[in-house]
Amino acid sequence: MKPILKKRHVLFPLIILITTSCVNLSRRFKNHDFVWVNKKDLKKYVNIQTESYNIIEDSKPSTSSKDVSNFVRELSPEGQAEIFKALSSKSTSIDQFATSLTHKLVINNSSPSKIRVFPTTINKSIVFSVDRRWVSEGGNEDYRTFNRIADRLTNLEVSLDLPDSGNIEFNSWDKFVTDWVTVDLGKVTSSQQWSATANVSASTSAKTYGSNKSTLSNTIATKSGKSDIGLTENSDLNNSGGEILKGNEHSTSIGPSASLNLTDKYETNINLLLSRMKLSGTISKSSIVLRQEGAFGVDLSGNTSVSVQYNFNGDYADPITIFKVPDYYKATEAIPVASLLKNTAKWFFPNITEPVPGYLKYKYLYRHVNKNTVKHIPEARQSVTFFYGEIGQTSEIPPLKIDLIKPEDFKPITYRIGLETGGTIQYLKWDDEIINFETASEAASFVEYLINLSKTNNTYGTIKPAPTATQINNIKVKKYQN
Fold first, then answer.
1. Least enclosed by CB within 10 Å: which of 59, 229, 341, 390?
2. Torsion 253-254-256-260 (CA) sign
3. Is 122 in contact with 309 (CB distance < 8 Å)?
4. Any bridge partners for residue 363, and if so which?
5. How far apart are CA 254 and CA 3, in angstroms?
6. How far apart are CA 432 and CA 429, in angstroms?
7. For residue 307, what are the β-bridge partners?
């Protein structure tokens, strides 16, 4: 009995080891570590780039004329009486009066407006491009970090701030409702099974067995309507058609003993459906904040587009004069400048002279799968490390500066007539006002007119500076950003 008791001391630690392994397996979901990323390593895991684009809305063409027929029936009785009175006073016969009643009135709205005021609001699309780095940028003083394919960006918060002192503010956006998306992660199963047996007792057993099998054969013969049946019985010495088994079995267990079995199985037979919150956030006059949270297996890298409306609260710039000339020629001859029908309009637009910056800040939670559990597909079984990083939250790591608003977003582009003299460009004036055209084709038509006018005896009138015969070929159309 002493050897058996001595071996029991060896068995007990083995049982404790097996039990501890099973407990660790059941707690695999809680096998997480959290690490605050060092400031020099922040962009080794997540990088965000931001661009801003104008949203161009299609404008519906306005009707230049309106056809009004049967207008008399649309008037009140008093109005009809006044129309009859006015038409009868101008008619000398019944036929002329009837013709006046059936005449179609055409209202012409083709006359250009004298003033145009540009809006103080603008719509722009902001695109956040989130890059989950698969490898960091290495250098002489740095080392490369290779991230695993199973890693993912699990939480993200992006904020964009406007300067405290400025005339631009956020007005509205298109991301005020939380969007829930169903994600199909496929059919995934992975499991491990542990089993252990232990024997701590001594035992002996003996077993005797034997068997005797005989074969009974029937012989049936048909002779004159009679049947003969013969019986053959096997004896111990006759092995034909029979089997005799005899023997003894003995087993002895001196204990203790133990066995351990491990089954690691990977299958694809369960369809896993999850939901995740795609986007949420807040907006104020000086800041917008976007938050994203990914579900199991869902990485948040990619592009997110937000449409934002900006308000301008500053003053208007000095107006510019826009020229429109319906016709430059009479027959085939260039009309003198003094005889041209010149239409002008004043354009008013916001006075923005410098780009308006935005300051990008973001926080992220990066889920890194540790090396010893890369083969386990279900995330509950993975041993992971969460890396938390912040960009732009402290003075040591300032926010990223981007251009949100450019002056041309609010200010119009016009086309001027430039005269090159001595390496410099002078813009032509008409009646002491710089000539601006709304389109390049209008400006090109004016240049063509000046060239044809130079071939006549007419002067340039109040167009200054008047190009000479050698300068006329140096006149060019210039695109000008006001």
1. 59
2. negative
3. yes
4. 157, 390
5. 9
6. 5
7. 125
Residue 443's H or E segment, with its range, is helix 440-453
Give the span between the Cα atoms of 292 and 303, in whole angstroms. 12
Contact between 472 and 451 (Cβ < 8 Å):
yes
Which stretches of the chain score pLDDT less than 50?
5, 21-29, 59-69, 107, 140, 176-183, 185-192, 196, 198, 200-202, 204, 213-243, 253-254, 264-277
Cα dihedral 109, 112, 116, 121 sign: positive
Measure the CA angle with vertex 470, ends 468 and 475; round to 5°: 80
Tokens read off for 242: 């029979």
- CA–CA gap between residue 83 and residue 144 (Å, rounded): 89
> pLDDT tens digits for 50-81?
888 887 665 444 444 444 445 566 666 766 66
- For residue range 200-238, what is the model confidence (pLDDT) as tens digits? 444 545 555 555 544 444 444 444 444 343 333 444 444
Question: Is 216:231 a contact under the CB 8 Å cutoff?
Answer: yes
Q: What is the dihedral of CA 230, 232, 233, 239, to 10 degrees?
A: -170
Straight-line distance from the first to the last Cα atom of the chain, in angstroms, rounded to the nearest whole number: 106
Q: What is the C-alpha to C-alpha distance for residues 187 and 149, in angstroms, rounded to an integer?
A: 19
pTM (predicted TM-score): 0.59
